[in-house]
Amino acid sequence: MDARLNLFGNQIAGKFVKHLVSSEKAVKDSELPAATQELVKIRASQINGCGFCTDMHTKEATAAGESSVRLNLVAAWREATVFTEAERAALELTEQGTRIADAAGGVTDEAWENAAKHYDEDQLAALVSLIALINAFNRVNVIVQQPAGDYQPGQF
Question: What's the pTM value of the predicted model, to 2 decimals?
Fold first, then answer.
């Protein structure tokens, strides 16, 4: 399977992706826990059906020491006992922020207030930024049908 468009071979797409990648530095440099960052990326990618990002972020999380049990349960986090209350709040915010078109009110006050119990303002800013960023990456990859399965940790 080949992508519809070579994101790295096209000057405009390559420049755009480069800017998306560089925008993630603010999140990576934040106090939002790295494990939470990967869980957020995985969950949004699952919802959006982005195989490339799901492949990438599960492999990056594994390389960073995340357990296979937790990775296998991300899609069923509500029923899983392996996530902290803070991670659960981040996953809920991720789901609501990813599915904003599906809900009349967007992100609920309850989801926001729950996240605010666990994260300070800077961490919330990083979390919101990350949710927006991974959704942008997912959309680019889904639109061009970027193939999944060949990603190697640290590749980018």
Answer: 0.95
